[in-house]
Amino acid sequence: MHELLRWYFERVLEWGYPGVFLMMALESTIVPIPSEVVMPPAAYWAAQGKLSMAGVILAGGLGSTFGSALCYGFTYTVGRAFVQRYGRYLFLSADKLALAEAWLQDFALTGVFFARLLPVVRHLIGFPAGLVRVPFGWFLGITFVGSTLWCGVLAAFGASTIGARPDLLSDPDALTQVLKHDLLWFVALAAGLAVAAFGVKAYGKRRAAAS
C-alpha cells in the first residue's frame, strides 16, 4: 500500500481528475488508503494552476460517493450473515461493523453526513447503510455533500501545507502525519457537532415519549 501511495504521488498530475476519483473511491471502500494523501497533492497542483481546484474537489466528492455506494450495494445484496462470516477477510471486522452500525442507528441519515467527516466510520458507513436499507437516494445525496465538504477541507489544508513544504510531495507518510495534526481542530469540531445533534435528537425523543 505504501508503494501504491508513492506511485500515486509521482503520477497525480498525470492522472488528474480520474486519478483523484479512483483513489477516493478506493478510500471509501475497504482499501486502507488515507484521504489525507489523495486530495492534498492534487490540490497543490491546482493551486499551481495545473488543475482546477473545483474540479479536484468535485472528483474527490464523486469518487467517495461512488465507493460508498459500492459498499452499500455489497451489503444490501449479500446480507448480514455473509458479512459477519467473511468480513474479516475483507478488512471488515465484526467490531468495526458494529461501531458503524451503532453510529447509523443513533444518528440515522444525519450520521451518514457526520460519518464522512470523522475517522474510522468515514469509509465504513456504506456497509451498515446497506444492511439496514437506508433509502438509497438519500444516502447518495448526503454522502456526496459530506464527502465533498471533507474533500474541500483537505484540499484547502493540503494546498497550503504542501505549498509551505514542497518536500512533502515525496513523502506520503510525513504528509499524513502533518495533516492529521493540522486537522485535529476540524475533526474535534465535527465530533462536537455530531454529539450535539445526537443530544438534540435524544431530547426530542424523550419529549415525544413524555407527551
Topology:
Blueprint: H1 2-27, H2 39-47, H3 53-86, H4 94-115, H5 126-131, H6 136-164, H7 172-182, H8 184-210
Describe this structure in words.
- The chain has 211 residues and is mainly α.
- It has one domain (2-210).
- Helices cover 78% and strands 0% of the residues.
- It is built from eight helices and no strands.
- It has helices at residues 2-27, 39-47, 53-86, 94-115, 126-131, 136-164, 172-182, 184-210.
- Helix 1 crosses helix 3 and helix 6 packs across helix 7.
- The longest helix is centred in the N-terminal third of the chain and has 34 residues, at 53-86.
- The mean pLDDT is 79.
What's a concise summary of this model?
It contains eight helices and no strands. By secondary structure, it is mostly helical. Helix 2 (39-47) packs antiparallel against helix 3, helix 4 packs across helix 8 (184-210) and helix 6 crosses helix 7 (172-182).
Tell me, briefly, the overall form.
globular
Number of strands: 0
Figure out the total of helices: 8
Q: What is the domain total for the residues?
A: 1
End-to-end distance, in Å? 54 Å
Give the low-confidence spans. none
What is the residue-mean pLDDT, rounded to a whole number? 79
Indicate the percent of residues in helices. Answer: over 70%
Oligomeric nature of the chains: single chain
Q: What portion of the residues fall into strands of 2 or more residues?
A: under 5%
SSE topology string: HHHHHHHH
For the largest beta-sheet, the strand count, sense and barrel status come to: none
Question: Measured on Cα atoms, how large is the radius of gyration?
Answer: 18 Å
Please identify the structural class as seen in this structure.
mainly alpha
